[in-house]
Write a structure and sequence with these properties.
The complex is a heterodimer of chains A (197) and B (265).
Chain A (H helix, E strand, L loop, with lengths): L1 H31 L8 E2 L3 H14 L3 E7 L3 E8 L4 E9 L2 E2 L11 H8 L3 H15 L5 E2 L5 E10 L6 E11 L5 E17 L2
Parallel strand pairs in A: 1-7
Antiparallel strand pairs in A: 2-3, 2-9, 3-4, 4-5, 6-7, 7-8, 8-9
Chain B lengths: L2 H8 L5 H34 L5 E2 L8 E2 L1 H61 L2 E4 L2 H31 L6 H25 L8 H21 L8 H4 L26
Antiparallel strand pairs in B: 1-2
Classes of the chains: A alpha+beta (197), B mainly alpha (265).
């Protein structure tokens, strides 16, 4: 009877120790992901933004090409800032290549409006707008007891100043604060940036 | 086939209705024991925690309040109360089978196990509070894994001491571990799904019931399996040997276990 008791106790203690290990693992996970805070956040200040914008403006870039990657698509654009024209050089949506006109024909109409958002100047405007939203501090109520907070993460190219990576996260939590779900509302990466003139 | 199983096969089983009665009784009493135990232990823990509760833990079972050191004391007391109530409920079925000595062992094992289970649920529950999870497949899967592990460890903490009591009396005692893990794991996954969809565990008032039902059904099958494979030390060997008039009707006394060959003479 004594050995049955001791073996049972040992087993429960092992399960308890495994529970402690799981608890430590959860704490480790929580250390790796940003903690829930009751306000919007931004990894850049207005001074950071102004400095990068000044660098970009100071370069007086006339024409440039870049590859933009977001979760859904990858596109290569040529932007002519002097004529305000956009050329689609390649476009892949969900891994499938779309036909493009290349340098023959500039984008017009809806396409021009849509992809205008990916030019460096438009991205600076979007970041300025996002910063203004996050500066409001409080999460925007979305009904019931839910609060939503925004985390803005931007990296600028240290030499030329254009935005290299823009990520906006949206954190949603209820007043019970049991869990916070984080979704990526924007994730734009610029690679292969080249100044043509 | 185990030697003890051969011995068992040479004996006459109790009629099927006895096993059906054990199965039904076990399910009803286990569900009742879990629910009543939770109700009483919640009253005890509320008295201990009092106004020191600072919030709600992300618990895979019940409504667990965060209360620092008092919370651990409450988990200990709640586990003991909950375990005792479960012992009394299951004792109605087990006492005739395990007799007094076996029942005392079972009682000690269940109280230890249920207390450890409460500790695990509390400990992991408070560490999960305020967790931030990206709504992407790998992160959501990891979160579900954390919940499932909590349920599995809780189930093992309860069932391992009990399985040692059974191991001394029967083969197949390992099925007891599996049977006790299913309920908490399924419940933990339901909690995870609710959190994923609603952002809030609004099933917390029903998780003990859900876990109790699944655990009761799974362990009822496991109990029958164990009862059918006793060692010579099992107290229920005598209790479940039926020497009444049904002996000639049983298909157990057949050649090669098949009814086609008729009864063994």
């Amino acid at each position: 009877m004594r050995s049955t008791f001791l073996q049972g106790l040992t087993g429960s203690m092992i399960a308890l120790l495994a529970g402690v290990a799981l608890m430590l693992a959860i704490q480790g996970y929580k250390g790796l992901v940003p903690a829930q805070v009751e306000h919007n956040t931004s990894n850049i200040t207005k001074a950071d933004f102004d400095r990068s914008l000044a660098k970009w403006s100071g370069k007086k870039v006339g024409t440039y090409e870049m590859t933009i990657v977001d979760p859904r698509q990858e596109l290569r654009l040529r932007v002519d800032t002097t004529t305000n024209k956009l050329y689609m050089l390649s476009h892949t949506v969900n891994g499938i290549s779309e036909s493009v006109d290349g340098l023959k024909v500039a984008l017009t109409g809806v396409a021009a409006k849509t992809f205008q958002a990916y030019t460096v100047d438009s991205m600076f405007e979007a970041i300025r707008s996002d910063m203004a939203s996050t500066a409001l501090g409080a999460g925007a109520p979305t009904g019931n007891d839910t609060t939503r907070f925004v985390d803005l993460n931007v990296q600028f190219d240290p030499a030329v100043g254009y935005p290299v990576h823009i990520v906006d996260y949206s954190r949603t939590t209820l007043n019970t604060k049991e869990i916070t779900w984080r979704t990526t509302s924007k994730d734009v990466l610029i690679k292969d940036f080249a100044i043509i003139q | 086939m185990y030697i003890s199983d051969e011995y068992r096969a040479s004996q006459q089983n109790a009629p099927a209705w006895i096993y059906i009665l054990i199965w039904v009784g076990w399910v009803v009493l286990t569900v009742g024991g879990f629910l009543l135990g939770k109700l009483l232990s919640d009253s005890v823990t509320s008295a201990i925690v009092g106004s020191s509760a600072t919030g709600r833990a992300l618990s895979v079972e019940g409504n667990v309040q965060i209360a620092g050191l008092a919370g651990y004391v409450a988990a200990l007391a709640g586990g003991i109360v909950s375990g005792l109530v479960l012992v009394v409920a299951q004792g109605v079925v087990l006492l005739p089978l395990l007799k007094r000595t076996g029942m005392i062992q079972w009682a000690v094992a269940t109280v230890i196990g249920r207390t450890a289970q409460w500790f695990i649920v509390y400990m992991v529950g408070i560490s999960m509070v305020g967790i931030v999870v990206d709504k992407e497949i790998p992160n959501v899967a990891l979160f579900f894994l954390m919940l499932a592990l909590t349920g599995a460890l809780g189930g093992l903490a309860l069932s391992y001491p009990q399985s040692q009591v059974l191991k001394a009396r029967a083969n197949r005692s390992r099925v007891w571990l599996v049977a006790n893990v299913v309920g908490p794991v399924v419940t933990a996954l339901v909690v995870g799904m609710t959190l994923f969809v609603e952002g809030d565990n609004n099933t917390r008032d029903y998780t003990t019931l859900l876990m109790a039902i699944i655990t009761a059904i799974a362990t009822a099958f496991a109990l029958l399996e164990i009862l059918h494979h006793p060692l010579a030390t099992a107290e229920w060997q005598q209790a479940l040997i039926w020497d009444g008039a049904d002996r000639e009707e049983s298909l157990d006394d057949t050649v090669l276990g098949s009814g086609f060959y008729g009864h063994k003479r």
